[in-house]
Amino acid sequence: MIAKTGGVVCTWPMGHRGNTVSRMTFLDWARETLEMKNRLGMDHVGLGTDGGGALPRLIEGYRDVRDLVHLVAAMREADLSREDIKAYMGGNFHRVLRSCIG
User: Fold this and answer.
1) For a FRET experiment, which of 6, 9, 20, 72 has its CA 20 to 30 Å from that of 45?
2) Is 1 helix (H, G, I), strand (E, B) or coil?
3) 40 phi and psi, to 5 degrees?
4) Alpha-carbon distance 102 to 97, whole Å?
């Protein structure tokens, strides 16, 4: 529904370990982003802006936004393009915000 209305689903640096899916490293996070791209389209995937505070667990090596450079490197390793990364890192959020407030 979010993609159908032009919205963006955002991810955070929250680490989690599950039976079939885990996000504990930057590469896990990048691969999850690629999976979301494949399911929703890259126009509907973005970086969450409100998840850096009181998350119960962060991915390994993430301290604050300065560590997003490691996510970018992992996204390149996961074969996301520069345009995909640009969209994820703020382009999609900016598009939605602009459409809402002008």
Assistant:
1) 20
2) coil
3) -110, -25
4) 8
